[in-house]
Sequence to fold (989 residues):
Amino acid sequence: MQGIITNIQRLSLHDGPGLRTAVFLKGCPLRCRWCHNPETQLSRPQPLVYTDKCLGCGACASVCPQGCHRMEGVRFDSTACTLCLQCVKVCPAGAIELCGEMWEPDRLAETLVRDKPFFGDEGGVTLSGGEPTMQAAFALELMDEVKKRGAGVAMETCGAFAPALLSELLSRVDHFLWDVKDTDPVRHQKNTGYPLGPILENLRRACSEGADVCVRGIILEGVNAEEAHARKLGMLARSVGARDCKLLSFHPYYSAKLSRIGRPGETMGQEYIPSDDTMKQLEQVMRDAFEG
Amino acid sequence: MIHFRSAVGERPIRLSEETRRFAWDSLSGKYGRELNESDHLTLRREEAQGLSGYQLHDLMISRIAREAPVRVIPGEMLAGSATLKAASRQIIPVLYEDGEMVMPAVSHTTLGFDRVLREGIDCYEERVRERLEKECTAKETEFLHSLLHVIEAMHVWHGRYMEAVKDPDEREALKNVPFRPARSFREGLQSLWFTFAFTRLMGNWPGIGKVDRMLEKLYQADLASGVITEDQARELLAHFFIKGCEWITLDVCGSGDGQHYQNIVLAGQDAQGNETAGDVTRLILEVVEELPIGDYPIAVRVREDSPAWLMELVARVMRHGSGVCSIYNEDLVIRSLEEYHYPHEEAVEFANDGCWEVQIPGKTRFRYRPMDAYILLQRDVLHLFDSEKVDYPSFEDLLNACFDAMDRDMEKFHSLADSEFTLDRPASVFALLEDGCIEKAKDYFGGGPIYNVLSPHYGGLPDMANALIAIRTAVYEEKSLTLAEYIDILRRDWEGNELLRRRQEALKGYFGNDSAQADELCGRLVQHFIDLARQVHMRNGVLRPPGISTFGRQIEWKDCRGAHAQGKKCGEILSGNLNPAPGTDRETATAIIRSHCSVDLSRLTCGTALDIKLEPSCAKGEEGLKGIQALMRGFLALGGFFMQIDVIDNAVLLDACEHPEKYPTLTVRISGWSARFITLDENWQRMIIERTAMGKM
Fold:
C-alpha cells in the first residue's frame, strides 16, 4: 500500500504536545476559503512553481497542453490544469517541483521517527494535511508503524470522516487536534463547502469514548471574529468533554503557496487578520465559556 | 527604566535599577571608550637595551602595576580594572615610542583561579621561594624570580586600589584577597575578579573556568550564617559580569569586540560523579537571563540526566538570544579525555581554553593549529590551481587520494609539533597560575605546565564531503561528464555552465540534512583525521588531541579556495566548524544535529562545535522553551560534543547592517565568543546572517 504526502515537517512545536514531526497527507473534503495548506486539497500529485528559480527558458509553456504556463504576468494559472505533470518533467532548472510523493507506511514511519531522540515523553508524530482520513487505510497503517517504533501519534483533523472510522482512530491516536472551522452551520457550509453537523457528531462521539481532544478554531476578522462564536466554541469544547481548546489567528502566510499551485487570485488579504487585542479578548471569552 | 533586548519578549527583572544601569553603560561601551585615553605605557628603546627577556618582561609588568590608571566606578561592588587598551589587543600594554610592540601576551588557557581562591597568592610566593632553595639552573632562577616580580607587581596594584577605593564594604572585601584564602562569598568573587583583571591588565586573555564550583561553598556558608542574602549574591555576580564588559568599545574590528577568550564553565559532575550545579549556578544563569551579557560566554556542562531545573534555565537564557549560553555533553567529553589517557580525576575537571576547546584548567599549556582540509582536495587532489591532468578511475580512488593528501598534511603537523617548545618566551603572569610551572621551574611556554598541548584543528571537512558527493553524483554515478571536464569547469569558475552549477547546488544529499551518504562520507573523513592525529599521542613532551574548527576562518579561507564542485563559485563562505555549509541545509535543526552527531566525536578529544541559529518564533512561549530543551536532549542522546544555540531574527540583523545606531548592544554568538553585531566587519556579519539552517520549526 502507498499513500501520498506533500511534506514532512520536523521540529514542529505547534502540532500537538512537545516536539513533533508532522507529515502532511494529501487530500481534503473541505475547501476552506482560507486554507493554509492549499497544496494538500487535491488528492493527486500537482506541480508547484517556484518563479524565483525560473530561468525563463519557456520549456513548461511549450509542453503544457492547457496553456497554464506563461513567461510574463501571472506565470502559472492552474484553472485548466489536468495534472499531466509534463511541466515538472521538462523544467531544467528545478523550478517546477512535484507536490505529492508516494510512500509506503513502513518506510514513511521510519523517516518520521528519525527525531525520536528529540521527542522526549510528550512529543511524537503528527498526521496532518489535508485531512489524514481521506487516505484512511494508509493513515491507520502509518499510525501502527509509528507506534511500533515507540513514538506517540497525534492527528490534526477537520472531523469530516466516515463515523465507522472512529473506533479505528481511537485505538491509535493519542491526541486529536480537532479544527472546528466555525460554530455557525451556515457560515461553515458557505466557507468550507461542507456541513458542520457530521463533524460535530464525530467530535461528540470521539470525546464520549475517551479521546484526548483539543478543539481549535480559526479566527478571521470580518468572518467570525465575534464573541458569540468564541463563546460557542468554548461551550462546545466543554460540553463534549474536550481536554482543551484554542484559538488560532488567520494569517495570509499561505499566499505564496497559492501562487505556486497556480491559484494566486484566491488569497484572502491582511484585512482578515484579527488584531492582537481581538484575539486576547476572544480567547478570554472562549476560556470563560470552556471553564464554565 | 532600562530595557534590554530579547529575541522573544520580556526578560525577567530581579536586579536593582542601579545595577541594570551599570550594565547598560558598560554594554554601550562607556568604560571601554574611556580606555581611548589610556592605550599603553611607553618604553624608550635605550631602557630595554642589554636586558634579558625576563628583565624586560618584569620591567614592563612592574611599570604597568605602578602606572596604569586606577579606575573606581561609583556604585561598583568589585575593585580592579584592566585600564590599558593595548591589553585588549593581547599584548603587554607597554610599547616602544614608535608604537612597536615589545612583547606579546598569552591566551587560550583557563588559569587556576580556583586555587588562588583556596590558597591565596601568599601561598604561591612561599612555593616559589621553596623552589628557589632547591637546585636551579640560571635560567630557572631567573624565571622563578620573574614570578616573584609578578607577585610584587600584584601587591603594588592592590595597594593602589586599597588607597583609591572608598566604599567600606568594597575595601573590606578587597583587603584580604587575593593574597590570602577567600573567607566569604564576596571575598571569593573579589579575589577571582582581581586576579583575572590583573592578568588581563598585563595583556593576557585567560579563560576563567568553573566559577560556580569556586563560589558555591562560600555562598552556602554565608547564607547559613546570615552574612548574605540571595538577592545580594545575585547583585554581586551581576557586577562580576558587568565588569567583564569593561573592554567593550563598540569599535568595528573584524571578529567583533568580544573575542577575549574569557569563557566561564558551569555545572557538571565532580570526581565522585555528583552534580555540582547549585545555587550559584542558578544565580549566574539568572543574571544573564536578565542582562544580555555574552562576554563572558558561558558553557554549561550537561548530560542526559542533568537536573531538570538546570536544563530549563539554560533554555530560558538561550531563548533571549545574545548567544550567552552553550552546552557541553560532559559524559562524552569526560570519556574522550579518559580515553586520551587523562586520569579520571583530571578529566572531570575539564573546562576550556576560554573559547570551547577542551582542556584541564590551570594545568595546561595550550595552542591549536588551524588547518584547511578542504584546500587539500582542491589543491592536491583535483589540482584546480595548476594544469596537471588528474584521473581517478573510481570514486574510491578519488577518496583515497584525499586520504593520502591528509596523511601528508598531518605528517607535516607532527614534525611541527615536535619542535613546539622552541617558542619559549617569558609568560610569568600565566605561569604563576599554572600548576607545574613553579615545581618544574619552567615557564608556560617552556614546558612548565603539567599538560602541554598542540592540537591539530581541521576545518572544511563538511565541504570536502559535499564536493566529493557532487563529483560522485555527476562523474561516477550519472556519468554526465568526466572528472577532467568537471575540473576544467571549476578552473573557469563555472563560467558558461550556470545550469549545471545550479543543478549541483540543488543536490539534496549534502551534509547537514540527515542524509546517510553525506553523513557517512563526512564521518569517514573525520575518522581518518582523528586516526592520523592520534598516531602520535605524545612526542617531545607535546600532546596532540584532535579538534575540528574554523571559528571564523572560513572567511579568510574563501579567498584561497577555488570554485566548488558543490555548485558554489569562488569566494563563497563555506562551512564553519563541523556545521553544514550555508544554504545546503534544507531540513530543520534536528536534521543538522543528527548529521553533526552521526560523526563519531568520542575520540575528538579537543572537541568541535555545532552552531544553531533559531528564529525567534521557534523559541517563544512555553512551547519554544520545550523546543530548545528537546534540541539539547537530542544532541546529548545522539552523542554531540558542544552546541551553541543563538536565537535571532535575520530581519533584525539586516536592519542592524543598515542602521547600526539602532542596535548598539545587539549581541550575537560568533563561535566560542559573542560580540556586538555592529562591531563585526561586513564578512563576519554575512557569515552570521547566512549561518546554519535558521533552525526552522
